[in-house]
Write a structure and sequence with these properties.
mainly alpha; about 350 residues; two-stranded antiparallel sheet; three-stranded antiparallel sheet
Length: about 350
């Protein structure tokens, strides 16, 4: 019994001693492992620290390089701007010097002109005095005044001019009677030759442009009633064929062609195309063109200084805007046309009154 107890105690003591030894060894192992882990962590921390330092240095160098590049670019731009400003300053200074030089030249010229004007005025006064003295001497010698001599000279010149004019008019009328038939035939032949086919086509056709070919059907209308109404009201032949986005207006009267063209433009713009609307638009357009012709004729005669011309002649002058000869607008020759009309009016007894200025200019 005692032996068994002793064995148990020894066994318990052995277990306790083994546990204690095991705990001591475990603590030593854990301590060594902790030291190893700590050393490894320190090494890794040093490596990470070195990497971060290297990355920071590289980033700093990159930022420094970019900053230097940016500074260099700005310095280049600033130097360019400074050079440009210097060039402008030099240019402005040169221009200012040139301006001052021209100003001085102008002042010199102005002073010279002023001196010359003073000299001319003095000479003019002296000349007037001399002329007045000569006139007084002539009046004493002739026994009549200067005004009376001038009146006698004017009357003499008037009589001579009238006699010469009558002789010239008589000769011109006789010559015109002799050569009228021949000249008339010559004019008719030249007119026929000039009115060749290609010129006639150019001067009798106008082209009206449209946005799309669908408008052609609306212009023709149901069973052609719209186009017939347009042709009957304007007196112009409207040709709608396969020409893309174009309608041809054919007629010998350019005024009627212009009325037809403007009427078509208004109708297409408005969109309402039917016989009643067509008649209304054509009538309004005809009145507008007639008013424009009269205004152009009046403006032309006023510009030429011709007054009192018959209203039909004024209307003929205004119609020259819509007539053409060899591709040129006859309104370019409105001065010759208006003067010709004034001459014709004087010959047939309408007697337009022209101002002295216009007679001198013509």
């Amino acid at each position: 019994m005692e032996i068994t107890t002793s064995i148990i105690i020894i066994a318990i003591a052995s277990v306790v001693a083994g546990g204690l030894l095991t705990m001591v060894f475990l603590r030593k192992g854990i301590a060594k492992k902790g030291e190893l882990l700590l050393n490894e962590a320190k090494k890794q921390a040093e490596v990470i620290k070195k990497d971060k330092i290297l990355q920071a240095k590289e980033k700093f160098l990159q930022l420094k390089t970019d900053h230097e590049k940016y500074i260099n670019e700005k310095n280049i731009i600033i130097s360019r701007n400074e050079n440009r400003i210097k060039q402008k300053e030099s240019s402005l200074s040169g221009k200012y010097e040139e301006y001052q030089r021209k100003q001085k030249e102008l002042l010199t010229i102005r002073n010279n002109l002023t001196n010359q004007l003073e000299i001319i005025n003095k000479k003019q006064i002296e000349l007037e005095k001399t002329i007045s003295k000569q006139v007084e001497k002539l009046e004493v010698v002739s026994g009549i005044s200067a005004e009376e001599a001038k009146s006698q000279l004017i009357e003499t010149l008037k009589d001579e001019a009238k006699s010469e004019a009558m002789v010239y008019i008589k000769d011109s009328i006789d010559e015109a009677r002799i050569t009228a038939n021949r000249e008339a035939k010559k004019i008719v032949i030249e007119t026929i030759q000039r009115s060749a086919a290609e010129h006639a086509i150019e001067n009798t056709v106008s082209v009206f442009n449209i946005d799309n070919d669908e408008i052609k059907g609306r212009i023709i209308g149901r069973e052609g009633r719209n186009i017939r109404a347009l042709e009957s009201l304007t007196g112009i032949e409207i040709i709608i064929d396969d020409s893309p986005e174009a309608i041809i207006l054919s007629g010998f009267d350019p005024v009627r062609r212009e009325i037809a063209r403007l009427s078509l433009h208004k109708l297409v713009t408005d969109g309402r195309i039917h016989p009643a609307r067509i008649e209304e638009v054509v009538n309004k357009t005809r009145k507008q063109i007639e008013q424009e012709i009269i205004e152009i004729g009046k403006r032309t005669t006023i510009d030429l200084g011709i007054h009192g011309m018959h209203h039909e002649l004024i209307r003929l002058v205004g119609k020259m805007k819509y007539r053409s000869s060899y591709g040129q607008n006859l309104l370019q020759h409105s001065k010759e046309v208006a003067n010709l009309c004034a001459t014709m009016a004087a010959e047939i007894g309408l007697n337009p009154k022209k101002s002295k200025k216009s007679r001198t200019s013509t």
